[in-house]
Write a structure and sequence with these properties.
Layout (H helix, E strand, L loop, with lengths): L3 E15 L6 E15 L3 E5 L6 H8 L7 E6 L2 E2 L5 H11 E4 L3 H4 L6 H11 L5 H14 L16 H13 L5 E5 L7 H18 L2 E5 L3 H7 L2 E6 L2 E7 H6 L4 H8 L48 E3 L2 E3 L13
Parallel strand pairs: 3-8, 3-9, 6-7, 7-8
Antiparallel strand pairs: 1-2, 1-4, 4-5, 9-10, 10-12, 11-12
Helix pairs in contact: 4-5, 6-7
């Protein structure tokens, strides 16, 4: 793997939420002890149920969320120890973001041309003429006709708006693009078009990418590595092909079983037991309240990580590596 652009090392994010009355505040553990690396030219897929911390991890990786504890490194340097102006200039231009819903992510009062030129103006990239030329280049890069530049977002289809969002993320020629559920707000008919665009751009530009999605099939085909999250923790991570073929964490196996084509056997694992709250996560393994393999040992401490050829998992009773589910 090439040298990481961004590294998360033992990152925690804890929010304070008002619950049960005006004066009661609970701590919400959105992210716990998250460790991940993002390199140029590699796609890291993040999967898990809704509320598991996928979007929080994406926000931390893009500098939109400062961690409560832990370290975020940008090219080996502590991101949050950098002077604000330098962090904005260097890190801001190295990271692109594609948000979930293009209808709310784009300024409705600006033309497409203005939306794409805005980051170039903020970072003072080139002359005015060079910025206009870059806007034309971006419109062409994402497969939009030139006349779209004069339109406002409301005049575009959902797929066109997301292409504009992708173009804006690429405006400063970033090393890494973080795409947080970039197709979930789109019609099924246009999802494949946007995904194919991302695959094509990754290949042509050598981008690193963090692809956040609950769609395991998409992540399987797009990602080089997959990180599986549960209740704010990364419970399994490794090469995509290896995780799909030999999931070692029971939660990963249960998650993949919901998509029969990912498994040679068509068995569907139904999870039972209470779904834990992020305000009061269970001791030990967070999955133990729903896991069919849980024992008293699972409640003691969060399991230490085991690994095999870059494939890591945190489980007291892992699945056998002889199991093939591809």
């Amino acid at each position: 793997m090439t040298e990481p652009i961004v590294e998360l090392d033992g990152v925690h994010v804890v929010h304070t939420a008002r619950t049960g009355g005006m004066f009661r505040r609970d701590r919400v553990h959105a992210l716990t002890e998250a460790t991940a690396t993002i390199a140029r030219g590699e796609v890291l897929g993040i999967v898990g149920e809704s509320g598991c911390g996928k979007s929080t991890l994406a926000k931390v990786a893009t500098g939109l969320q400062r961690p409560t504890h832990g370290t975020v490194r940008f090219r080996g340097e502590d991101l949050w120890a950098m002077p604000t102006s330098r962090r904005r200039r260097e890190f801001g231009s190295a990271m692109g973001v594609v948000f979930q819903d293009p209808s709310t992510a784009l300024n409705p009062r600006m033309s497409v041309r203005g939306i794409l030129r805005d980051p170039l103006d903020v970072h003072r990239r080139g002359t005015s003429g060079e910025r206009e030329a870059r806007v034309d280049e971006l419109i062409d890069l994402v497969g939009l006709p030139g006349h779209v530049g004069d339109a406002v977002p409301a005049q575009l289809s959902g797929g066109q708006r997301q292409r504009v969002a992708v173009a804006r993320a690429l405006a400063l020629q970033p090393d890494v693009v973080v795409a947080d559920e970039p197709t979930s707000a789109l019609d099924v008919s246009v999802r494949a078009q946007v995904l194919n665009l991302l695959v094509d751009l990754r290949s042509r530009l050598g981008l690193g990418m963090v692809f956040v999605s609950h769609d395991i099939q998409t992540v399987r085909h797009l990602a080089d590595r997959i990180a599986v999250m549960y209740l704010g923790r990364i419970v399994e991570e490794g090469p995509a092909a290896q995780i799909v073929a030999e999931p070692r964490h029971p939660y990963t196996r249960a998650l993949f079983s919901a998509t029969p084509s990912l498994m040679r056997r068509s068995e569907r694992i139904i999870l039972r037991g209470p779904v834990p709250s992020a305000t009061a996560p269970p001791t030990g393994c967070p999955f133990r309240t729903r896991c069919w393999k849980a024992t008293d040992a699972c409640a003691e401490t969060f399991p230490a990580g085991d690994s095999d050829n870059g494939h890591t998992w945190n489980c007291v009773h892992p699945e056998s590596n002889a199991r093939s589910t591809a």
